[in-house]
Every structure is written in structure tokens, then in C-alpha cells.
Specification:
The longest helix is centred in the middle third of the chain and has 17 residues. It contains 11 helices and no strands. It has 2 domains: about 90 residues, no CATH class; about 70 residues, no CATH class. The protein is mainly alpha-helical. The relative contact order is 0.11. The protein starts with 7 loop residues before the first helix and ends with a helix. It binds iron/sulfur cluster (2 copies). The site of one iron/sulfur cluster has 14 residues, from helix 2 and helix 3. One iron/sulfur cluster (SF4) binds next to helix 6 and helix 7.
Length: about 180
């Protein structure tokens, strides 16, 4: 049961402004939730996150693990009958959680996101091997996924050297404008 919080209109308006998405049309059909491949790792289903915002339950939404577990794959939005961009809403909530200094429910995922962005900043593209190495180093856990890493290398799913974009200035501009 989700209870009404205070200032529900304010929160909904703020998330609409942050994400650029009007989710008032959501009628909670749960199509997004049924389609989400990461539902098992979430504490609140994707449509419940929208419900929490609509009901002004800011703290619960911002402290949820769902907003960090969502990988932005767009599976949900591609089958939403109202074409609601749920990943953009999750993104807006993540921004707000960081801005407000909320304790991140999934700190490892934030660290992973940071490493992904670091390689994009450096090369203009992601470099999976470097992301994994840096992430594992930070966690002081180099061995737990070694078998999978070696398998991926064997199957050529990981490049040893990064692929780089030519126009580095354009990448620098994107990060400067953020
Ligand atoms: S699929 Fe769309 S309309 Fe249905 S619950 Fe999800 S966001 Fe709401
Ligand atoms: S974008 Fe997020 S909420 Fe939507 S299906 Fe993918 S993981 Fe689930």
C-alpha cells in the first residue's frame, strides 16, 4: 500500500521538469513492470516508482534500489501504451537523490556508472575491460568474476585496447556542458 505524502504535486512537477517526461497519463497497467528484465533486483516495480512520485512519497522513491538497478534498457518504454519514458524518470530521480545527498541504495552500481562515464570521457566510447578492472579494483575484489572475464576475452567480447573517437573536442564539450 502506498500512502499519500505531503506536496505530491510539487514532487511530480519537479520530476517532470527534471526528466522532461509527463507521466500523468500512466494508468498503472503494469506492462512496463511485466516487461522489465531487472524486476527481480528491484525493491519497487517500475510502475510503483511512478505511483510513489504521484503520491508525493519522495523519500521512499529516492531511497529505493530500483532507481539504481534500472539499466535504462528501454524495454519498458517501448511497450508502454502511453509511451512513457521510464528510464528518463529514473534518471531524474537519480539526479535528485545525488543532489539531496540521499544514501544511495546500491553504492556499487553508482561506482560502476562512474567508471562507465570515465571511459566515455577518455575515449568517447566505453571500454568494457577497463571499466571492469577499475570497478573491481575499487571494490578490492579482483577475483570473483575472473572466470567470466576470461570467457568473455576468449569469445572476443572484451577488447584489450580501447576504441577511440576522432573528435575528442566534441566529447570534452559534452562533459563541459553538463
Ligand atoms: S506501461 Fe506505461 S501506462 Fe502502463 S504502468 Fe507502465 S508507465 Fe504506466
Ligand atoms: S529501462 Fe529500467 S525499468 Fe525499464 S525495463 Fe529497463 S531496467 Fe526495467
Amino acid at each position: 500500500m502506498i500512502k499519500l505524502g505531503q506536496n505530491q504535486d510539487d514532487l511530480a512537477d519537479e520530476i517532470k521538469a527534471l526528466s522532461g517526461i509527463n507521466f500523468s497519463a500512466c494508468f498503472h497497467c503494469r506492462t512496463c513492470t511485466n516487461a522489465c528484465p531487472f524486476l527481480e533486483g528491484m525493491d519497487y516495480a517500475p510502475n510503483k516508482i511512478i505511483r510513489l512520485i504521484q503520491f508525493g512519497q519522495e523519500e521512499t522513491a529516492l531511497k529505493s534500489s530500483t532507481i539504481w538497478v534500472c539499466v535504462g534498457c528501454n524495454t519498458c518504454s517501448s511497450c508502454c501504451p502511453m509511451a512513457i519514458d521510464i528510464p528518463a524518470i529514473m534518471d531524474g530521480l537519480r539526479h535528485k537523490a545525488i543532489e539531496k545527498g540521499i544514501k544511495i541504495a546500491e553504492p556499487d552500481i553508482l561506482s560502476f556508472h562512474t567508471e562507465v562515464l570515465n571511459t566515455v570521457k577518455k575515449y568517447g566510447r566505453t571500454h568494457k575491460l577497463e571499466i571492469m578492472m577499475r570497478y573491481k579494483l575499487k571494490k578490492l575484489d579482483l577475483l570473483s568474476d575472473m572466470g567470466m572475464g576470461l570467457n568473455m576475452l576468449k569469445k572476443r567480447k572484451l577488447d584489450l585496447t580501447p576504441s577511440k573517437v576522432k573528435d575528442k573536442k566534441a566529447i570534452e564539450k559534452i562533459f563541459k556542458d553538463r
